[in-house]
Specification:
36% of the residues lie in helices and 19% in strands. The protein has 384 residues and is of the alpha/beta class. The chain has a domain of 186 residues: Peroxisomal Thiolase, Chain A, domain 1 (3-Layer(aba) Sandwich). The chain has a ten-stranded mixed beta sheet, with helices on both faces. Strands 5-6 form a two-stranded antiparallel sheet. Helix 4 packs across helix 13. It is globular. The mean pLDDT is 97.
Length: 384
């Protein structure tokens, strides 16, 4: 198998993009990635999108996007895995390059969530329809159950839970692509509107429009496209039960642990080698549980560690330097690709005021539903 590198990236602003269509924002990100890699042709295309049909009444995104970016004739496919659609698409592109089937693959992720009449319904299709959605439970409700179970078992306080969005909003201030690049404080979190006890509005990622794209190429020829290619050192993916009640433990996410173990093994590294990570903080409790499943902290300790500053600059590692899903935004199909773009910028030293010092090895973790799927990528700087 060939080694694979990221040689170009492109990203739109995240937020409420009322003046642009689904195809417009995908094209903006895709063409920016192609320009970054100094190419005008690709061999293959993958589009990560959770639900273009329900959000925008548009399916057949592979044909639409290939046509709209001037790449008619290339093989293309849309990849869906709920909120992990983007990272699953990257995984497909990675293996296409690694296998030798293609030399230049564009992987994009996109979602126009503000176009939907009922965004809660659309997101709910990623849950178990017969046992969860039919009975009225939503994702805030599911993650609230996880938070309650975790707080009961480990003594996590409401103030420690609030430390997650406080940290991520602080990181977002220097991210020009972020939807909500402003700081919040403990009072702001605790006084925000209740959503599903103990979760409040400031514990929840927002509805977001946005697109992200990367160009993949074999590492052996990557310097044809960029002076600073970033190696995808390891990839791991796993699935778990779609229904929360089928999880063995409400305080664990087995798919995250399995995907991480596979990525660490492929990369030949350990959690202690990782300097920064972009993780799936769809709700505050998610970052805490994910950080433990990735091996960064012992079970039951991540909430306290984050509150003590161990997941920010100067701590054990930096988690979500971009601002995470909470502050950067969460256009579900684009999120996984955007995480890899942040990792690439960090490893290339292009992250500006949010730069992680001497960043050489980073990780991204993206999941669907309440842990029904998870994908982990480990990226390495190879220059310098």
């Amino acid at each position: 198998m060939r080694e694979v590198a990221i040689v170009g990236v492109g990203l739109t602003k995240f937020g409420e993009l009322w003046s642009q269509s689904l195809r417009d924002i995908f094209a903006e990100a895709a063409l920016a990635a192609m320009a970054d890699a100094k190419i005008d042709k690709i061999d293959s295309l993958y589009v990560g999108a959770m639900s273009g049909g329900l959000y925008n009444y548009q399916e057949h995104l592979a044909s639409l996007m290939a046509d709209y970016i001037g790449q008619q004739g290339v093989p293309a496919a849309r990849v869906e895995s709920a909120c992990s659609s983007g990272s699953q698409a990257v995984r497909m592109g990675y293996y296409e390059i690694a296998s030798g089937a293609s030399d230049i693959v564009l992987v994009g992720g996109v979602e126009k969530m503000w176009d939907a009449d009922d965004g809660t319904f659309v997101l709910g299709t990623a849950a178990d329809q017969e046992y969860e959605a039919y009975n009225g439970v939503t994702f805030p409700g599911l993650y609230a159950m996880m938070a309650n179970a975790y707080m009961h078992r480990y003594g996590l306080t409401r103030e420690q839970l609030a430390a997650v969005p406080i940290k991520n909003h602080k990181h977002s201030v220097h991210n020009p692509y972020a939807q909500y690049p402003f700081e919040i404080d403990l009072k702001g979190v605790l006084n925000s509107a209740p959503v599903a006890d103990p979760l409040r509005l400031m514990d929840c990622s927002p509805i977001t429009d946005g697109a992200a794209a990367i160009i993949l190429a074999p590492l052996e020829i990557a310097h044809k496209f960029t002076n600073n290619p970033i190696k995808i050192k390891g990839v791991g993916a796993a699935t778990g039960p779609i229904a929360l009640h089928d999880h063995k433990d409400l305080t664990r996410l087995d798919a995250v642990r399995l995907s991480a173990e596979r990525a660490y093994k492929a990369a030949g590294v350990t959690p202690n080698d990782i300097q920064f990570a972009e993780v799936h903080d769809c709700f505050s409790i998610a970052e805490i549980i994910v950080a433990e499943e990735l091996g960064f902290f012992e079970y039951g300790t991540a909430g306290k560690a984050i509150a003590e500053g161990q997941a920010t600059y100067g701590g054990k590692l930096v988690i979500n330097p971009s601002g995470g899903l909470k502050a950067k935004g969460h256009p579900v199909g684009a999120t996984g690709v955007a995480q890899l773009i942040e990792a690439t910028l960090q490893l290339q030293g292009r992250a500006g005021k949010r730069q992680v010092e001497n960043a050489k090895l980073g990780l991204t973790q993206n999941m669907g539903g309440s842990g029904g799927s998870s994908v982990v990528h480990i990226l390495e700087a190879i220059n310098g």
